[in-house]
Amino acid sequence: MSGREPRRAVVTGIGAVTPHGIGTEVFWKTTVGGGSSLAALDRGGCEGYPLRVAGQVRGFDPAALVEETFLVQTDRFTHFAMAAARLALEDALLADADFDSPYSVGVVTAAGSGGGEFGQRELQNLWGQGSKYVGPYQSIAWFYAASTGQISIRHGFKGPCGVVASDEAGGLDALAQAARTVRHGTDTVVVGAAEAPLAPYSIVCQLGYPELSRATRPDHAYRPFTSEACGFAPAEGGAVLVLEEERAARARGAEVRATVAGHGATFTGASRWAESRDGLAHAIDIALGEAGCRPEDVDVVYADALGVPEADRAEAGALADALGPHARRVPVTAPKTGTGRAYCAAPVLDVTAAVLGLQHGLIPPTPHVTDPCHDLDLVTGPARAVEARTALVLSRGLMGCNAALVLRKGGARGPHR
Amino acid sequence: MTDQVSYEVTLEDLAALMKRTAGVSVDPDQFARQADAGFDTFGLDSLGLLGIVAELEKRYGLSMPPDAERCKSPAEFLALINSALTTGV
To answer: Where does the Carrier domain start and stop, copy by copy (chain B) (predicted)?
Structure first.
């Protein structure tokens, strides 16, 4: 063991369950092709609300990827998380791994609202029939910590576990927490976020958000950085990544895709979008500082892209403040306009796209956006071929959290091939 | 007046409840052979047993003894449940 070389957290596996489909490959292919899975919300019980367009995960058979004992005790958001975790471990060639110690693997997830569908069913039983009709798994299933716990139980991981509850930006904060855990001595951390907000109770909760798009046309519902911006379309699904200590990953011959190089987080208050400019700019400064990057090193930005004019202006301003003149040159993209915003999972899907984009030398475009009205080089139309080394991923939450994450292609010793 | 209703809850009933309320499938032969083994052997946790107790209480309209949810094995659980059901306590 070389004592002087710092421990670095690298991405070695990715699993995604998204509106684009089940698995990382279909997510990437659709994303890089500029495809959109936004459509009329047609899930049973969800009709009749003034939310018409969303990113639904269709064709998801949880029983194909998760054992029944876990399914009955968990909500759909945990089904997504457990399925994505399994896909990520398979992708990292760790699915059947005999880890040296169960304590060498940790789990970190983020979730914004927990298990709304499960909770609604049990609360309806409570008020409709009485307390004896509430199942005991209600105590754990609707709790936003459920996914971390169930992934850890299912795979027998006993290393440091955690749950980040910091709004949508929590998806990036979870990755930062996982990277810290790796740097502090745990060799492997399974990290990500999944959400299932497309159930009646959850939808009613979201109707209180002024930022929610009430548009009826899927191609008009979520168009950030344009003069037609009218809010965001929500989505369900999630992604999970396997982070490993770089030397340990190389020692077992794993493919080192990207390094989690820097992170910054700030807070500027719920729906105070003008103020998020300053908060986001500071988060970018902190993240670049930790990564040892100059502004001009950033080759691509995955924007938060809320789709609210004031928030879009603040984000463009934050990039100008943090990156200086480079903000007008660096390609900016928001592939989430093709999936919708899956709350905490949204930035994790962006990290997934960013890692794959670095690997493939491509920047996926921003679906549904053709005429950006900000001074940004927004990638629209076809994907752009760029041999990028460094990606900056941004996220803001409706409750005021801001976060920035810097990813670098490959590991410290360059891309592994 | 004597109550003629048979309240006996069998291993098969318990296996069906485990499947329905906790998603736990057991092999009938193994279940019968290892009725003295801990519930954890079959993958049932304490919340799962709590759910089964609640189901039985609804089915028979009786409160089960507080110890029911603390039983360690299917055999111990069925003995306690059936005793409570026959005495009506």
So the answer is: 8-89
